[in-house]
Amino acid sequence: METGQLISLGIYFVVMLGIGLYSYLNTDEDVEGYMLGGRKLGPAVTSLSAGASDMSGWMLLGLPGAMYVSGLSASWIAIGLLIGALCNYLIVAPRLRVYTVEANDAVTIPDYFAKRFEDNHHLLKIISAIVIIIFFTVYTSSGVVAGGLLFEEAFGFDYRIGLWATAGVVVAYTLFGGFMAVSITDFVQGCIMFIALVMVPIVAIMNLGGWGETMSIVNGIDTSRTNLFQGMTLIGIISLMSWGLGYFGQPHIIVRFMAIRSVKDIPTARNIGMSWMLVTIIGALATGFVGFAYITRTGGDLADPETIFIFLSQVLFHPLVAGFLLAAILAAIMSTISSQLLVSSSSLTEDFYKLFLRRGASDKELVIVGRLSVIGVALVAIFLAYDRNSSVLDLVSNAWAGFGAAFGPLVIISLYWRKMTRWGALAGMVLGAVIVLFWTYVPVLPPAEAGGDMRPLNAELYSIVPGFIISWIAIYVVSLMSPQSKPGVLETHDRVKEKMKEAGVES
């Protein structure tokens, strides 16, 4: 490992830990302070922390790798994500910020579901919390695995040292600084990702002699790589673009909307967040596209297409700069891990400990439990990640669809339809999750080739599509068939509408 890269890595870790210390000294020691930052996030921190926690290593590894292999046709998933993120800001963000305050100050997504429907039986809170804890523990493990592999492949460290280094730094600043530390570090990490995804493709293009020469190299190998529809079917395009549906149900993303200081700040956050996302996604796609041209021109050896960002960082830049660029990958990984750790610990604290063990627990006690939960979830994630060939990564590829189908329709409809009932909410959540699991794991399609194995339906159509649709229908039908909500629930819904009008967000 180059000394310059090691110096950059050390500086990055020190900055992250420093932010954790700052947040610890400036965060109120109560539940809302630890889990939502006291609802005081500014629009810039809100938007970039949401973006950074969303994208993870996929932005710097998966997307450039897909572009490297397939060309422009790999852009459909990016288009779907851009549309989904924009709709999330427009449809969910304003109302969720107001509703979670009006619904007796809900501080977690399961807590919002329970208070929105006055679910005194706690079924909604328990089931949604179980879904969050299980999926996010596995999700966190995948991030730790990615950190271990990055340390091994890019920095030359042992894989297990990478696991502990990645998890250790994230746990340290999440443990002490809580939501504020997670959000501020995500903001800084989002800035690092932004700079890296602008620098790498631009320098690579300049190194090749400009955009025209880059296009000539690519077209000289395969003209189909510049065709957006190459190899795509209608079902294929729908499957890729449907990734955007997942945004409405991702707890680690929409919790940012609950924490912003005012609903009036959301348009500013939207403009910042969508600008950041547009530039970084274009940069990620450009990295894969230009990387293909660079490897072709120089005859370089690239064993894994998903490492094209790492390859270009190391061959085009001084070691000190390359270390900064590699830290961008670590930033993407760590920003997602920290958000998932905090959401999981929040659910363990609010939705289990307080509900079943200590209903009268003080804020100080709940913050302590939240911190212990961060450590507990992290240790389980590290244990799962110790086997580098673990099937955990296969499970994580479907977590986005699971959250999107189980929570997406539930979140949207609960914010807008006053006649929605808790039984409708429960039916939609359970059916959405079950359909995704069935669609993903049950082999019902014939083999793609002679002698092959039966395939799940997910091989043809992404599971979030049927899961989302069936969840939506279930919520509507069951709500109409079940007893109407209590007067207090309807009054809260009407009060939210009035607050939205007062804020000038809705007419």
Structure in words:
The N and C termini lie far apart (59 Å). The chain is mainly α. The protein has a single domain (3-386), classed as Sodium/glucose cotransporter (Up-down Bundle). Helix content is 74%, strand content 1%. The protein is globular. This is Sodium/proline symporter. It is found in: Cell inner membrane; Cell membrane. Catalyzes the sodium-dependent uptake of extracellular L-proline.
How are the secondary structure elements laid out?
Blueprint: H1 3-26, H2 31-36, H3 43-55, H4 62-70, H5 76-102, H6 109-116, H7 123-153, H8 159-208, H9 211-221, H10 234-241, H11 251-259, H12 266-298, H13 308-316, H14 319-357, H15 363-385, H16 392-396, H17 399-416, H18 422-441, E1 443-445, E2 455-456, H19 464-481, H20 487-502
Antiparallel strand pairs: 1-2
Membrane topology: Multi-pass membrane protein
GO cellular component, one term: plasma membrane
Function: Catalyzes the sodium-dependent uptake of extracellular L-proline.
**Largest sheet composition:** 2 strands, antiparallel
- How far from one another are the termini? 59 Å
Could you say what the CATH topology is called? Sodium/glucose cotransporter
Arithmetic mean of pLDDT = 83
Q: What is the helix fraction of residues, given as a range? A: over 70%
Structural domain tally: 1
| CATH homologous group name | Sodium/glucose cotransporter
Helix tally? 20
For the record, the CATH class is Mainly Alpha
The total of beta strands comes to 2
Strand order, main sheet: write it out. 1-2
What coarse outline follows from CA principal-axis ratios? globular
Do you know the CATH architecture?
Up-down Bundle
Structural class: mainly alpha
Q: Give the topology string: H per helix, E per strand.
A: HHHHHHHHHHHHHHHHHHEEHH
- Rg computed from alpha carbons, rounded to a whole number of angstroms: 23 Å
**Strand proportion:** under 5%
